[in-house]
Every structure is written in structure tokens, then in C-alpha cells.
Write a structure and sequence with these properties.
Strand content: 15-25%
Strand order of the largest sheet: 4-5-3-6-7-8
Number of helices: 17
Mean pLDDT: 84
Shape: globular
Low-confidence stretches: 1-27, 39-65, 511-526
Largest sheet: 6 strands, mixed
Number of strands: 16
């Protein structure tokens, strides 16, 4: 490389950019602080109105190209309806809920609309299998009415919520007539439609799906299992009479993904990034729903004991005691053969050194959130040295990015390949860090971006995540080893307002709700 070219590392990115040092000024902390102070003086003289997250927060937000708050890049500006297709007991609801959970986690607001739930509300429960016979005109009219009602609910959801992106219509939609009905209702509303068909030709899997899920649904409350199984099997037979699968010969113009036995995929006419990401997720989905995943933070480190964030320190005596207890736990529960994933930090590697497991993999993506210039400081020191940063992080902890560091949103983007690998994994123990586990556990528990940064992930605790129905359950296993408390509670709106005032970020304001600061007079947003 010529001498006049240098390599510059961009925060929150693994890419290296080459630039001409003669034409670009390398940013320094002194330059950053000088410009920020000048702009802060301008901001202090103004009055804030509207949500702080909707304002510019001063030009220093983008000083030297790094924003103070992260934003999700729009993967699609359009509203979309993903319509499930397939016979009953084919895993459609399982796929719909898993896909919605993933899309919500990556910042694409999604919601599942289950037609069976609305049918029970509108028509009632305990409908016999004859209700689903295509030759039963009354039943067909009733089911068409319910489908129309749910489509109206989807349209209303998009109209009422500007953040809404993906509605997942969880229904059989087994005929072209029904799929045409979906297109006729959605397309005039500028809602794009993609069909996702789940096909299954293994009778053993079908039988297990019926016994594990369907005979326990509200349609068969108070019904004997054998009677429920027979009735549901006959329901499937009635659906088969009119079933028309998606195929290229007749449906080439449609956007669709056809999943056969959760192992083979036929993808047609994918038209945007979010549809591509959805297809990629479906190709990584795990078929074994009974798998338990194990997560743990490293043992207590020297920085944990001192109340400092970040760093790359070794374990304390308590941390070593926990690592040994964790090894005993794995041995006692016959988990010595499962793979162990860790970060590249010393405290996770040292924790693994006390385990009996030999299959240990290290991933840079599992490293703790980068605290940038705040790395190695206590929260008290951050509040004293960077009062405005301390206050603004409390305002929107998920999107706030440390100076020269990362945000929780950045962290989720970094962890997406890990999530894909977890979806394909049976049993695994992941040993990493507090913020990282907040993002991963938040994914499995389907928590919002507002809640993820405040999930309690205590030290010296194994977190078991077990799938149940269409979600997951969390169980904490503790070993009685003492440790520092590193959890910081979500601050109240009044507390955030006072910190913003003390830091000089705002002059006078009144707070209506967390994250919203309004002035006493109507003024232009700053």
C-alpha cells in the first residue's frame, strides 16, 4: 500500500476504509470535545419541544460521521402481508410466530393475526370437522366471513399504526379463491402480499403435531384426547378435498416461499430486502422444538467487583468459584458433550477453562458492547465526566451509542449471525456478557427494544431457555456463589429530565412520559 494511504477503523463496523490522509482530518478527542461544547452552548439557549428522539439534538450528533443515536435502516417502505398456506398441523402457526419474533427483533414491526382465534370469537368453539368440509356451503360462507373480518383487522392495524410493517395472516388459505381474496383486499390498500406455504408429507410428524398441540387447543376443551384426535384428523381430510398447493405453473406472478418438510425451499418472485431476510431466516429455523439452550455470563471479573464497565480483566476468586460450579453443573446434568460458545474476552475464556467440555468455540460477535470512551469507567465517573452522555443514554438506552462505541441496536445487528446459528443448534451453552445476553434473551422472550436494555442478567446464574408452544420460557439456575450486582434499573421520566437539565442539554421543559420532553410553549423542534 502506498505511504499516502492509511487505514481507518470505523466504530461499530468490521470494515476498513482506505482514505487519503492529505485530504481528510483525523478526528481527535480534543477536536470532538471543542466542537461539541460550542454546539452545546447554542442548544442550551433553545427550548425543547416534542419528543427528543424526533429532534436533531444538535449538529454534534453526527460529528465526524458518528451519530449519538442509532437508527434502523429501512429495509422496506411498504406494508406487507405474509399469508400462511397449508393444511392444518403443518407448523404454520409455529413458523408465523417464530418469523414475527425475528422480524420484531431486527426492527421490523410485525404482528400475527390468527384466523382460528377470530373464528372462535365470532362463531364459537367446538365446531365439528363437518364445518370444514368444502361441500358444506354454510360452513364455507362462515369461514369466508371470518377471513374477511381478519383482513379488515389487518388493514385497520396498518392504518392505525404508522410503524406497522408486516402482518402475518396465520390461516390455511388452501385454495386459489381464498388467496385471490387476500390479494383483492390488500393490493388496493398498497399492502404487498407474500405467501408462505408449509407442506408436510410425513405422517409421523403430522400425528405428533396433532397430539402435542392441536388436541389441546380451545376447540377441544373438555374433549377426550382420542375423540379430539379423530375429529382433527377428519378436519385435515376435509381440507385436502380442496387443497391447491402453490406452484410455478399457475402462481409464477406471486411472491411466495414454499417450505417442504422444513428442509426444502422453493422461493419465487422475492421483491425486497425484508422478504429476503425472511426467507433466510426460514432456511435457518430449527425443527427440534424441544431443545433447551443454556446461557451464562462469565464469572465475576475484577472490573465487575470495582463497578467498572467494559475492560478485559481476569476473574476474581468468586468468579473462579462460579466457573468450577458451572463445570460441576454440566457434569451432573450430562451436558459435558454439548458445544460451548464464548467471546474473545479473557473473562469468558477463563470461565471456560474450568469446564469439562472440549468442544469450545470463540466468536468475536459475542464480545461485550463497546463502551467507547467510557470503557473502564464506573457509572459515577461517566456521570461526572460526560454528564450529557449519561443523561441521553437513559433517555433512549436501546438506540444510544457510546462515543466511539456501540449501541444496543448495533449489538443486535452484530448478533444476527449468532441468532441464525442458534436457530440451527440443538443444545449449546453460550458464555458471554450482560448486554449481549440481554439482546439474545430478549429475542427468545420476544421483548421490545425498550425492554431489552433492562433485562436482568445476573452474574453466577445459568439461564435456561426452553421452547413452549409458540414461545419460550426462561428459568434461572443459581449456585449460591456471591457476586457483584451490575444491573441498573430503568430511570423515571423525572430523573431523566433532571439529568438533562443538570447536564445543560435542555433549559426548561416538562416531561409527559419517559423519552418525551415538552416545553411550556409551542416552539420549533430543535
Amino acid at each position: 500500500m502506498p505511504d499516502f494511504l492509511k487505514t481507518f477503523y470505523v466504530p461499530s463496523s468490521e470494515h476498513l476504509i482506505e482514505y487519503d490522509s492529505a485530504s481528510v482530518t483525523t478526528p481527535t478527542d480534543d477536536m470532538f470535545e471543542s466542537q461539541k461544547k460550542q454546539l452545546m452552548e447554542v442548544e442550551k439557549s433553545r427550548t425543547w419541544s416534542g419528543s427528543l428522539m424526533d429532534t436533531k439534538l444538535g449538529e454534534f450528533q453526527t460529528t465526524f460521521g458518528q451519530e449519538r443515536y442509532t437508527r434502523s435502516l429501512p429495509m422496506s417502505h411498504s406494508k406487507q402481508c405474509y399469508a400462511m398456506v397449508g393444511l392444518p398441523a403443518r407448523g404454520k402457526s409455529y413458523i408465523a410466530h417464530r418469523l414475527a419474533r425475528y422480524l420484531n427483533w431486527i426492527g421490523v414491526k410485525s404482528k400475527v393475526f390468527n384466523v382460528g382465534k377470530y373464528r372462535r370469537e365470532l362463531v364459537g368453539v367446538n365446531m365439528s370437522c363437518d364445518y370444514y368440509d368444502p361441500n358444506n356451503s354454510d360452513g364455507a360462507d362462515s369461514r369466508k366471513m371470518v377471513a374477511g373480518h381478519v383482513l379488515t383487522k389487518i388493514v385497520e392495524w396498518f392504518r392505525d399504526d404508522p410503524e406497522a410493517k408486516i402482518a402475518i395472516l396465520d390461516a390455511t388459505n388452501t385454495t386459489r379463491e381464498r388467496r385471490d381474496m387476500i390479494l383483492d383486499r390488500c393490493l388496493p390498500e398498497n399492502i404487498k402480499v407474500m405467501f408462505i406455504e408449509s407442506a408436510l408429507d410425513d405422517p409421523t410428524i403430522e400425528e405428533n403435531n396433532i397430539k402435542e398441540h392441536k388436541i389441546r387447543c380451545p376447540d377441544y376443551q373438555g374433549c377426550e384426547p382420542d375423540t379430539a384426535f379423530k375429529d382433527f384428523s377428519e378436519r385435515i381430510t376435509n381440507y385436502k378435498k380442496a387443497y391447491q398447493t402453490l406452484c410455478l405453473d399457475l402462481d409464477r406472478e406471486l411472491s411466495f416461499i414454499r417450505v417442504s418438510n422444513i428442509t426444502q425451499f422453493h422461493i419465487n418472485n422475492i421483491s425486497c430486502n425484508v422478504q429476503s431476510k425472511s426467507a433466510y431466516f426460514l432456511m435457518n429455523i430449527r425443527t427440534n422444538t424441544q431443545t433447551t439452550l443454556y446461557f451464562s455470563r462469565h464469572g465475576e471479573s475484577a472490573f465487575n467487583k470495582e463497578g467498572r464497565i467494559g475492560g478485559d480483566t481476569n476473574l476474581t476468586e468468586n468468579g473462579i468459584s462460579y466457573a468450577r460450579k458451572l463445570g460441576d453443573f454440566l457434569s451432573e446434568n450430562s451436558l459435558t458433550e454439548i458445544p460451548v460458545w464464548t467471546s474473545l474476552m479473557k473473562r469468558t475464556i477463563e470461565t471456560c477453562s474450568y469446564l469439562p467440555n472440549q468442544n469450545i468455540r470463540r466468536y468475536k460477535a459475542l464480545n461485550e458492547i463497546d463502551a467507547g470512551r467510557c470503557d473502564g469507567l464506573t457509572y459515577r465517573q461517566i456521570e461526572e465526566q460526560y454528564p450529557e452522555e449519561f443523561a441521553l443514554r437513559d433517555l433512549d438506552k436501546y438506540n444510544y451509542r457510546y462515543p466511539r462505541g456501540e449501541s444496543y441496536h448495533d449489538l443486535c445487528c452484530r448478533l444476527e449471525p449468532i441468532i441464525m446459528d442458534l436457530e440451527k443448534t440443538n443444545e449449546v451453552l453460550v458464555i458471554c456478557h450482560q448486554a449481549v445476553l440481554r439482546c439474545i434473551v430478549g429475542y427468545y422472550l420476544n421483548l421490545s427494544a425498550d425492554d431489552i436494555p433492562y433485562i436482568e442478567i445476573p452474574l453466577h446464574t445459568v439461564i435456561k431457555i426452553t421452547p413452549v408452544a409458540y414461545g419460550c420460557e426462561r428459568e434461572n439456575v443459581e449456585f449460591g456463589v456471591k457476586s457483584s450486582v451490575t444491573h441498573r434499573e430503568k430511570q423515571t421520566a423525572e430523573s431523566i429530565e433532571q439529568r438533562l437539565l443538570s447536564a445543560g442539554v435542555i433549559s426548561t421543559c416538562r416531561t409527559n412520559s419517559p423519552g418525551e420532553v415538552h416545553s411550556d410553549s409551542e416552539t420549533e423542534s430543535v
